[in-house]
Amino acid sequence: MKLSSRITEVLGIRFPIVQAGMAGNTTPELVATVSNSGGLGSIGAGYFTPERLEKEITYVQQLTDLPYAVNLFVPSQKLYIPDKVEHMNAWLKPYRRAFNIEEPVLNMDETHQFNHAIDVVIEKGVPVVTFTFGIPDQITIAKLKERDITIVGTATSVDEAIANESAGVDAIIAQGSEAGGHRGSFTVTGSNQTPLIGTMSIVPQIADAIDIPIIASGGIMDGRGLVASIVLGAEAIQMGTAFLTTEESGASSLYKNMIQQSKETDTVITNVFTGKPARGIDNDFIHKMDEYNDDIPDYPIQNQLTSAIRKEAAQKGDAQWTHLWSGQSPRLAQNVSATLLIQRIINESKALLNS
Amino acid sequence: MKLSSRITEVLGIRFPIVQAGMAGNTTPELVATVSNSGGLGSIGAGYFTPERLEKEITYVQQLTDLPYAVNLFVPSQKLYIPDKVEHMNAWLKPYRRAFNIEEPVLNMDETHQFNHAIDVVIEKGVPVVTFTFGIPDQITIAKLKERDITIVGTATSVDEAIANESAGVDAIIAQGSEAGGHRGSFTVTGSNQTPLIGTMSIVPQIADAIDIPIIASGGIMDGRGLVASIVLGAEAIQMGTAFLTTEESGASSLYKNMIQQSKETDTVITNVFTGKPARGIDNDFIHKMDEYNDDIPDYPIQNQLTSAIRKEAAQKGDAQWTHLWSGQSPRLAQNVSATLLIQRIINESKALLNS
């Protein structure tokens, strides 16, 4: 077993470590530090306007000459039902009032923004694009391939992995149920649930089904997780929570502390923050929403309806009214620089491989 | 890294592979074959009367001179609410009628049966006892230790592992959320849920918290899973689903086929069969129970209420009205002898360790 393989060559990186998109929490410093330390930094651009994306890419390019990625959310099917949005707005009213926030104007044109982001990625010569929530259409894939941009998809089941491979992506992030933040799923199970397959199960089953390289994610925080993932059939790992608590991350110290003080049993899967299922630390917002007696509006509607409340709460140091994405291994989180984190993981991995 | 460590010495086995209890599906042939092949076979005695347990142990002792285990269910808190039992009996009536089955007489004395089983284990000189659903009391632990019987507990969270270690067990099965069958949990999370932590997360976090050996379980089916578990900090693995489809297992061919034809997304966690949460292949019984508008009676009440229906359905070849426990890696299940399964796992593990 070794740490370099097809994936380090394809991505042009020294170590098989990818920093997850973590929309809302990446900084150009984090992305560039990860890339400069031998991994692949990712700009979490899921919520960015094209203008913001262009700025962030320019900033990252000033900080590193090494490869980095941009993570984008593929537009997904959504239902806009005015009554349900009105109902949710009524429910959120007291919280908006408490934080002195206006009702938001919804921006429903995900596809326009996504296509514009693809144009920015091409213009700026971004080396790698990773996709969450689905597979881009064939026109988009062809455009990226024409420019030799490496395309990485996300799968939470074997079928999603096969669909990604058939569409022509270069590598696949296999997301286990331990992962923090949004589920990358774009299919449902036979019982109409979002797939929640543990990393120990999903990686070897995907490895048996496809030929392109796999990047394992979900619960991986250290050298043990990296080597275990390679043993299971992956060629690299993607980590979100592990990078969220590093010095360069954009997460607030409140949020970093919440992760470092959490137990492995403190997270839940919930769609109440954004309209899509995601794993985060349980808090009052989630409990209160348990009492909401209607469907939660689809992503990105619910995301836009709650976004300002969550931002304001986070800024005021209120951990109970904001999302606290975290995977199931918070006990392994370290508050160090991203460079030291990567060094420790590589040293631990080499020690394990030689033991 | 190597395949032998403290745990193979403590258990007196050649290979670090434990066959899970799988109450209702183990046979003396399976247990003895696993032990004779270098692993640790386990008699799944969770539902056995003391008389049945004694017979099974005697049979296993005739088939092997090597160590084996008995798996027992620790009696747990339960509420017997006559109205709720009556309601469930009314709901189950049409199914009992269809299968020509009488309403069962409930046997509520778990503790008496458990204590009797401990006496049998001591009298018969069983070398290893594994416990599910809790930690036995100190009197029981002292009795077993006095006879040099190795005690193995089950944990689904770090706190459960620490509690097991403090109680004096010799090793701990760390059960990840991928595992098929009953959750071994005996605590709930902050949000009152059964812990469902993926194997990739639970093993290293428990390894950092305790000093006694860990047996990893959940989603492990082959050499990749064994070596990955050792990398994560375990010293052995326990497998249920992988042994369920072997030739010596007591599972019906219907059940074996269902597992081998399943996808990783086909299982759900449900308490409708026994009153305790367990992972199994989704079917009509589970769907129908979704419509039941009352609490499911606690284990072992619900188990006894539905047991005859499930047995009769299984015997009639009806996979929709029986429990089909399976972990999240059914695509990796093999229908071979337990001996060949163990040989393959060890060969694959050695190849991985030397690669």
UniProtKB/TrEMBL annotation, chains A, B:
UniProt keyword list: Detoxification, Flavoprotein, FMN, Monooxygenase, Nucleotide-binding, Oxidoreductase
Q: Which reaction does it catalyse?
A: 3 propionate 3-nitronate + 3 O2 + H2O = 3 3-oxopropanoate + 2 nitrate + nitrite + H2O2 + 3 H(+)
Q: Which GO terms describe its biological process?
A: response to toxic substance
Q: In which domain of life is the source organism classified?
A: Bacteria
The record's listing under InterPro entries reads:
Aldolase_TIM, NMO
Listed cofactors: FMN
Database matches in Gene3D superfamilies: Aldolase class I
Q: Name one Pfam family in it.
A: NMO
> Under the GO molecular function aspect, what terms does this record hold?
nitronate monooxygenase activity; nucleotide binding
Functionally, this protein is described as follows: Nitronate monooxygenase that uses molecular oxygen to catalyze the oxidative denitrification of alkyl nitronates. Acts on propionate 3-nitronate (P3N), the presumed physiological substrate. Probably functions in the detoxification of P3N, a metabolic poison produced by plants and fungi as a defense mechanism.
Among PANTHER family, the record links this protein to: NITRONATE MONOOXYGENASE-RELATED
Protein family according to the UniProt entry: Belongs to the nitronate monooxygenase family. NMO class I subfamily.
The identity of this protein, by name, is Probable nitronate monooxygenase
Which species does this protein come from?
Staphylococcus equorum
